[in-house]
Amino acid sequence: MTPPLSSQARGAGSPGAPGSDVPALTLDALGKKCPIPIIMLADRIRDVRVGQTIAVLADDPAAKTDLPAWCALKSQEFVAAVDRPVGWSFLVRRSY
Amino acid sequence: MAYFDAASAEPMHPAAREALLTALEDGWADPARLHREGRQARLLLDQAREAVAAELGSRPDELSFTSSGTQALQLAVLGAVQARQSAARGPGHLVTSAVEHSAVLNSADWLERRTGTRVSTIGVDRLGRADVAELTAALEPGQTLLACLQSANNEVGTLQPVAEAAEACADSRVPLLVDAAASAGRMPVPAGWSLLAASAHKWGGPAGVGVLAVRKGVRWREPLPADDREGRRVPGFPNVPAILAAAAALTAISEEREDPDAALRALTARIAGQVPVLVEDAVVHGDRDRRLPHIVTFSCLYVDGETLVTELDRAGFSVSSGSACVADTRQPSHVLAAMGVLTHGNVRVSLPRAATPESVEEFLAVLPPIVARVRETVRVASSS
């Protein structure tokens, strides 16, 4: 599944349901170098409810390490990295 | 003001400087010639070889000087693997850790592309320590032509389990290349190597001198066109004065090793303890116990390492960031990526022997406001 590109767009289905992997919010960090994708995630994670997921689209190879590392440091749940035609979609669930 | 990048190059030891000047007078001639000047250069070169061999735990005839640590690693990997490839065995198999120096990884990649050698890359834990069980399981008796493991990691300072790896390699009759560049001159070379590489500028010798040792009985074949120099292992006229300086530095620091290393260990521990306290969202990498005395590496969230290095330089502190060897490729550090830790906002502090507690306190004082300032700049840039 490819999440929508708009940073405001809601995913299909019922993204509000806690535990759903459908992102409640998608952030477009394509073309941005680390640490900017991480900063965008840190700024916006409180815009989703606990249990909801947020998708970060990024193509800087450093994001592959840094998004999971950020989640580990901040005790947020890293759900998955999904390959896209360009870069990846990183799914993060807000845990608290 | 302080130079904190000894892991890239330790400032030249006074003994090296002195030996270099003397050797420029006495050791400039071609050591392969039979005349008086040549014999004099030969004598000095042999003395240097004996001194370095004694410090690194090899026999003099096992040891050759190269033009760099990188060249030593390339010759070690290519020469050991190609000596064992055969029609019966085929292109064979190579085992390396994910956090080796780029010279090892690039040589492995070269063999894979040019000769079809299969390469197994062993993972590391979050502290950067190679997984010996995975390494042991990867060895294929009869097929694995070489295993490569560094004595310590040059980016985060973590010591590697070389003794255990050597035991596993011996059991499977696989030769082991130990890259001792990060630790040589600071800690004894671990036993059990079949091939050994090191680099003089990391211990306070001049640049342009590397060391390659091949244990007696270990098969190795020159990967380059034949040349008579350095036991037929390294082509070209060796830089005898620089080699003498390298040997003088190594001998001098081994005589004074205890004190500076204990002091450096305390200073890096102080930095490791204070950075997470003084800087919000900073994390220290690597093993805090089994480590090199002079290296401490940390990452600060929400800043980029290059800007941090530039700002610290402006404040008078010379440090490095990410993988020093591949920084210009703009790829994240392969070491930090393999560890699964934050690759951005990375700073490696590596203290030279002359580092003082005062300079470390000064560094700890300038770091927090610099990180805060860079964070502010990056935040503004990211929201535009």
| Shape assignment of chain B | globular
Q: Largest sheet of chain B at a glance?
A: 7 strands, mixed
| Mean pLDDT rating of chain B | 94
How many runs of DSSP E, i.e. beta strands of chain B?
Answer: 12
Q: How much helical structure, as a percent, in the residues of chain A?
A: 10-25%
SSE layout and pairing:
The complex is a heterodimer of chains A (96) and B (384).
Chain A: E1 23-28, H1 36-44, E2 53-58, H2 62-74, E3 77-83, E4 88-93
Chain B: E1 2-3, H1 14-26, H2 36-56, E2 63-66, H3 69-84, E3 93-97, H4 102-115, E4 118-122, H5 132-138, E5 144-150, H6 162-171, E6 176-179, E7 195-199, E8 210-214, H7 229-232, H8 240-255, H9 258-278, E9 282-285, E10 295-300, H10 305-314, E11 317-318, H11 334-339, E12 346-350, H12 357-382
Parallel strand pairs in B: 1-11, 3-4, 3-5, 5-6, 6-7
Antiparallel strand pairs in B: 2-8, 7-8, 9-10, 10-12
Helix pairs in contact in B: 1-8, 2-8, 3-4, 9-12, 10-12
Describe this structure in words.
- The complex is a heterodimer of chains A (96) and B (384).
- The radius of gyration of chain A is 12 Å and the shape is globular.
- Chain A has a 4-stranded mixed beta sheet with strand order 1-2-4-3, covered by helices on one side.
- The N terminus of chain A is likely disordered.
- Chain A contains 2 helices and 4 strands.
- By secondary structure, chain A is of the alpha+beta class.
- With 384 residues, chain B is α/β, with parallel strands linked by helices.
- In chain B, 43% of the residues lie in helices and 14% in strands.
- The radius of gyration of chain B is 21 Å and the shape is globular.
- About 1% of the residues of chain B have low confidence.
- At the A-B interface, helix 1 and helix 2 of A face helix 12 of B.
